[in-house]
Amino acid sequence: MLNKTDVASNSGFSGPDRAPFPAIPSVRPERRPATILDGRKLPLAVLTFEFLVVSLAVFEASALYHFMKFNGFAYPRFYALAALGLAFAFVLSAAFARDYSLKRLMDRREQLRSIFWRWSITWSLFVCALFLSQATDFYSRGTVLVQYAAGLAAAFSIRFLTIAFVTRGLQSGHLAGSNVIVIGETPLVHQMLRRLRSDRRGTRIAGVFPLASPSLAVALDPLSRDPAQVADETAQVLERVNALARRVTVDDILLCLPWSENERIRTFMEGLATIPAATHLAPDQHWNWTRHPVLARVGTMHTIRLARAPLTLKDRVLKRAFDIAAASALLISASPVLFLIALAIKFDSSGPVLFRQRRHGFNQSEFRVFKFRTMTTLDDGAVVRQATRNDARITRIGRHLRRLNIDEVPQLINVLLGQMSLVGPRPHALTHNDQYEELIRLYARRHNVKPGITGWAQVNGLRGETRTVRDMQRRVEHDFHYIDNWSLFFDVKILVLTIFSPKTYRNAY
After folding, report:
1. What is the pLDDT at residue 317?
2. Among 246, 265, 277, 473, which is least packed by CB within 10 angstroms?
3. pTM of the shown model
4. What is the pairing mode between strands 179-185 and 252-256?
5. Helix/strand/coil (H, E, C) string of 402-460?
């Protein structure tokens, strides 16, 4: 484990026999808790503990079922061995898939999916083995089902407790994650250090090796840089990095260099080949605008994926099935209340009960959205003025409908027609889309999925009037987060928050 001397001694790097390296300004040393657990030992501990708990849960469930059903427990030794074998096969498959690594343990959704499928597959193979060995003569179907439920519950419980422990430990610094060495030009290194220390993932900075940044003249004309000076500086840094790697276990090495310096990057790669650590090339200043650059492959050619496809075919089918089932149930169950609301709107003010306005949907397609009429005006032209607090255009009934978000309920019809989804980026009026597409980068990416009655931005309080471009930009950022992280569980979470979260009703006027 590192100590303060290890880190401090690698953040200036000058000596009597070497030229001084440039210091990185305002990089504060890490504050470390008194007790730090090594994250490398955690996967084995979690695997062992989960094996014991799942084995015990499966065996105890078998015993409890037999005592309740048959007033006795025959063949306890066989059931104990079966429980151990079932649990061992499960944790072994999870270990081979690296489910116990720190990175995977912080992904709650991936853990939920992995546990369910791995346990179901392991249990199915176990049932087949019982059938082939003719053990089903005394191994009842009830026992098998009870074992499945008990093992699944035990695995979920252990894994989620572990997720909570890992997340809190990494954020507080009591659990040490990966050890990282950062090499590169001072501005890029400084930016990378800030990001590593702000993501609260337990990353330990093992060493910082800044390189001299090129002068303005060199930046304008890269060929004017002295090759001998560059080679000498690179050799000195490689020598010091290798010396540090012999004293400290290093997991990752980050190269913070302009991507145009391919020869220097290759020199570093060759010089770092003796260190058993992953070497990464960090995005340079020309790639800061990208959201999620990922190394991918098209055919046999490696590429950098700048944006992922919003939803796969399986995702679209699953989302559409959920939309149809939930929207139909909601529309049928709420129809008496909707009828009373329609009568109240009709008697409150003159005009239609439903208001239809043109919006952009999936892939920029145009459709008309249904809403309960809450205003005395029906704007749908080149000028659409957003509702403001105490807006005189809002009717008496409309004020209550908007405050409770009930005016959006008729959009269940749009959902059944396939124009909208229950959850997604909220559709804006056409004139507002035209306005913000010119002001916000990648704004039109909101239309890569169907718009929704509610969305991630709305449940976080980002709804209503957008007084500044920054207000809309924050909303769009939340829409992008939803598109990049969609899951059925995420949709259900947003629907629940739409009803129960106070933030949903913020700025509702």
Report:
1. 92
2. 246
3. 0.58
4. parallel
5. HHCCHHHHHHHHHHHCCCCEEECCCCCEHHHHHHHHCCCCCHHHHHHCCCEEECHHHHC
In the chain, domain spans: 4-34+174-288, 40-172, 313-505
For residue 157 the two structure tokens come to: 């419980």
Architecture of the structural domain at 4-34+174-288: 3-Layer(aba) Sandwich (3.40)
Alpha-carbon separation of residue 477 from 147, 205, 314, 424, 484 (angstroms): 45, 30, 25, 13, 11
Asked if residue 79 lies in contact with residue 55, where contact means CB atoms within 8 angstroms, the answer is: no
pLDDT of residue 205: 85
> Alpha-carbon dihedral of residues 6, 11, 12, 17, nearest 10 degrees?
40
Q: Quick one: average pLDDT of 202-222?
A: 68
| pLDDT mean over 217-226 | 54
- Look up residue 198 and give its amino acid: S
Query: Could you identify the residue written with the tokens 């959006």?
Result: 408
The pLDDT of 450-461, averaged and rounded, is 92
Quote the CA–CA distance of 330 and 411 in Å, as a whole number: 11
Quick one: pLDDT at residue 222?
A: 54
- Tokens representing 289 are 């605008």
Residue closest to 208 by CA, chosen among 246, 259, 250, 270: 250
